[in-house]
Write a structure and sequence with these properties.
By secondary structure, the protein is α/β, with parallel strands linked by helices. It folds into two domains: 15-264, Aspartate Aminotransferase, domain 2 (3-Layer(aba) Sandwich), CATH 3.40.640.10; 271-397, Alpha-Beta Complex (Aspartate Aminotransferase, domain 1), CATH 3.90.1150.10. The chain is 40% helix and 14% strand. It is built from 13 helices and twelve strands. The protein has helices at residues 15-27, 34-47, 58-68, 86-93, 113-119, 139-149, 215-225, 233-237, 257-288, 320-329, 345-352, 358-366, 378-399, and strands at residues 51-55, 76-80, 97-101, 124-130, 152-156, 164-168, 180-184, 191-195, 208-212, 294-295, 310-314, 367-370. The protein has a seven-stranded mixed beta sheet, with helices on both faces. Helix 1 (15-27) packs antiparallel against helix 9 (257-288). It is globular and about 75 Å long. The protein starts with 14 loop residues before the first helix and ends with a helix. The relative contact order is 0.17.
Length: 400
């Protein structure tokens, strides 16, 4: 195990989380009880959404989302290739087929609305967006496209708890300019999906949340999450019935009380943790902006970001592997977000190997993720920035 001076990510866990978990252990009610219900209520309140359901992880949230919205064999769902593979896998789990859409470009790694529209055909059932790095997609245009073609929209908001988009407030008066309001990611499409994995902005170790404003979808999700049952153990414990029916082929995608307890504490910390991410991102930009040999994406987007990761783009003539090896030698962990899905062996064997996604492929070959986590001090940011600058200056001057 490498002893990193500056790891890629770290988590903020303290006595509050330990006490919360101990309280659950002492209660002897360990799964789908009052703590989970409170976590769901608080998360829904934080987002301003009607329904939130805690689940095992974001992958199953995505699976439930596509199932609840009716995706199945013969359908296609548009999604990015520049994302974690779960975004596409969840579509495949339903029997539907992912259709990969290109990203916008070097400034914005999110789905291109123009390419979404170009790839819609008679088989298209829905769109699954992913808010890359916690930077929101152009949800206004994407929702307009979805409404025009009668498509559902799932938001993969794994990186984006607390991020928000400027959206028009529906006034009902067509000729009046719409007032614009910030609407949180995960509440704009039909269903939102969140991750609480260990490296995310808030963590329950493993865990996720699925959100919606639609009562029919909420009922479907709730039943599919727990074996298709009409009532849960906690409901029966509270005297809300003695038996249950099974009305659908459901799954065991429930979250336990221990992780829900962690989630409640982490949710309370999220605004402060996000503010630290903002400060660290701004410090990086101050140090690296204008450096020859690299560019910094997402600098001019109008929305409110969650700043999950800090990606940089190396120029095409620079050796990314050599750069990452140099950073490793300095004790700095870096990563790549992401190897594009359509290049993976499994997806190439499914026929995606010849896919043409020029912006996705360009970015995937040049992007590097630098360390970003709330506990980073200014000295660590300066150390990382100095190492980046040293390598860039050396390699751009030698190249010229």
């Amino acid at each position: 195990m490498t002893n990193w001076k500056v790891p890629l990510a770290d988590i903020d866990l303290g006595e509050e989380e330990i006490q919360a978990v101990n309280t659950v252990l002492r209660s002897r009610w360990l799964s789908m009880g009052p703590v989970t219900a409170e976590f769901e209520r608080c998360f829904a309140e934080y987002l301003g959404v009607r329904y939130a359901f805690a689940v095992t992880n974001c992958t199953v949230a995505l699976h439930l989302a596509h199932l609840a919205l009716g995706a199945g064999p013969g359908d296609t769902v548009l999604c990015p290739s520049l994302t974690f593979v779960a975004t596409a896998n969840a579509i495949c789990y339903t029997g539907a087929t992912p259709v990969f859409v290109d990203i916008t470009g070097t400034e914005d790694f999110n789905l291109s609305p123009e390419d979404i529209e170009a790839r819609i055909d008679a088989s298209t059932r829905g769109i699954c967006v992913m808010h890359y790095g916690g930077y929101p997609c152009d949800m206004e245009r994407i929702m307009q496209i979805a409404r025009r073609h009668d498509l559902y929209v799932v938001e993969d908001a794994a990186h984006a708890p607390g991020a928000a988009c400027w959206m028009p407030l529906q006034s009902g008066k067509e000729k009046e300019p719409a007032e614009r309001v910030l609407q949180k990611c995960g509440t704009i499409g039909d269903i939102g999906c969140f991750s609480f994995f260990a490296n995310k902005n808030m963590t329950t170790a493993e865990g996720g949340m699925i959100t919606t404003n639609n009562p029919e979808l909420a009922e479907r999700i709730q039943r599919l999450r727990s074996h298709g049952m009409t009532s849960l153990t906690w409901d029966r414990e509270q005297g809300h019935g003695f038996s249950y029916d099974v009305v659908a082929l459901g799954y065991n995608y429930r979250l336990d009380e221990l992780r829900a307890a962690l989630g409640l504490v982490q949710l309370g910390k999220l605004p402060a943790l996000t503010q630290r991410r903002v400060e660290i991102t701004l410090a990086y930009r101050e140090k690296l902006d204008g450096l020859p040999g690299l560019s910094l994406p997402f600098r001019h987007l109008p929305h409110l970001a969650a700043y999950h990761i800090f990606p940089i783009l190396l120029d095409r003539d620079l050796d990314r592997h050599a750069f990452m090896q140099f950073m490793k030698a300095q004790g700095i962990q870096t990563s790549i977000h992401y190897p594009p899905i359509h290049r993976f062996t499994h997806y190439a064997a499914m026929g995606y190997g010849g896919e043409r996604l020029p912006h996705t492929e360009d970015i995937a070959d040049r992007v590097v993720t630098l360390p970003l986590y709330p506990q980073m001090g200014r000295s660590q940011v300066d150390y990382v920035a100095a190492a980046v600058t040293e390598w860039i200056v050396t390699n751009t001057s030698s190249a010229s």
